[in-house]
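Handout, tutorial session.
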Amino acid sequence: MKAIIISEFLTTQGCHEFMQVQSLGIENQSIGQGGFGTVYRLQQVNNRPISTPCIVKLLNGPDAGRGLQTIQQLQQKIARQHQTFQRRTQQSVFQIAALQCFPMCSFTGTMGEKGYLTLYLGNEFKSFEDVLMESKEYAVLDWKAKLQLAYQFVEGFIKLREMGFLWADVNPDNFFVSISKLKLCFIDLDGGTVTDQKINHPSTIGKLGEWMPYEYIEAMNQGGNDIRIRVDLYSEHWGVALGVFYLLFLCHPFFFLSDLGPHTVRNYLAAYRWPEPDHSIGSQPTEVEQMRQSIADLITKFAPFQFIQQQMQQAFNKGVFTPSARPSHYLWLSAIEQALRYFQPPKIKYFLKNAPQKRGEQPSVFLSWEVRFAQRVEITEFGVVPVSGCTRIPVTKLPKDYTIEAIGYGGSAKEQLHVEVTPPSPVTPQISFKNQKQPGTSVILIQI
């Protein structure tokens, strides 16, 4: 076990186990390594075993100081947000799924070590990069499960935004997914920046490759020694749009083009509207075209995706090369919330009978109903009916049992109603005597 003697530390409010940190004991072998640090399992704090499984990320390289500064600024933001969140919702900001790996404590060691502690997620969590490499288990998840993970992804970005934190380093290595728990969590937040600190800049503009915004790629393609790239909220909007698409479909939105380079994508968008096929490249492999058509059909014809489709059309058409046109985090969250409502179990608000009828009409009763969260509603003898309505039943067809069944993406619900007509109770005749004032004649009039 390696020992780190602490010279300075900062504990995030609410992490009582790390209120006083004098030393850390970490495993000899690392469990992960990246461009900005090495990750170890934490064994001891102040020479005592820990009750909460944690990891230590030791920052390295020329940006280690900047990364530590970013983490400490984020800790202060988390403390303030935690108080606000508790007053508003009676919950903790630490209960946000995507932020479970928030920095609990940051430190500097006597030997110059710099790093921070976060929660150890466990073996059931995998990086999304690994999920993409071994996608079979994830691919069979239903749409509700994938939407829930997408919701957590966007919600995490919204909470970071509320803390004034910009995370430019979003990529499939930097968020983990548990398929069994349906949970998603961000890691490696030291690559971001607290936007209200002018002296602070992100340690990275993101991972090279298909997750990087196209304005970054074009800037780097220009070459030269003085490459200036502006990291802002619009670039984060691209990461969120891409992340939602990957979480739903496990691929890049332009996977069907000959390549993902900005020149190819520009030419495609000049001639077509995403996700139309690119006829300029000739015939596509059957499986590629089938996949493209399947995604196109889903986002245009699958009812839960009708709101998500609007954001995707905006992000992957105009928003590709016009950063300000990209949908905000809040628009994505609203669209996903709308989609998830389709997967709630159908609810039969009411199914009842009444008997409003005009004098002289054939006796009849009326069935009325209203259903929520259903895609299809059926009533015995009437077949498919609207989600709310009223229909007339002549009494000659009674008595009878009627069943309403509501079917939706989240299941089904049934309710039965027995309808019969009870004859009115007999009216007691009222007998009155009326003298017609004719001598020798008496008439009895019965008024009913």
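The second record follows below. Compare its token runs with those of the first.
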Amino acid sequence: MVSPVPVATSINVVAAGGVGTSTVQPTAAEPLARQRPLGETIVLVALFGILAGLGLFFAQTAQRASASPGGMAAPDGSSQAADTASRTRIA
């Protein structure tokens, strides 16, 4: 078995300074927020509201279609395939 050997590491960072260099304070990487005009804000809110509404609509439509055994669900919640099967007589 090999016994662990302690390792000491030292890292020195040295920046080269030239004539006339100044010290710059590091700033946080923060995006600049700009003030939007009211009209642009209203248009963006409406656009994203419509997109969210369409997403919910299509999600509900897909859920109803996959939940009904015979395909697309009728507006009253029953499926057309179930109605047709109940009216069909096997002779």
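Points raised in discussion: The CA atoms of residues 4 and 85 lie 77 Å apart.
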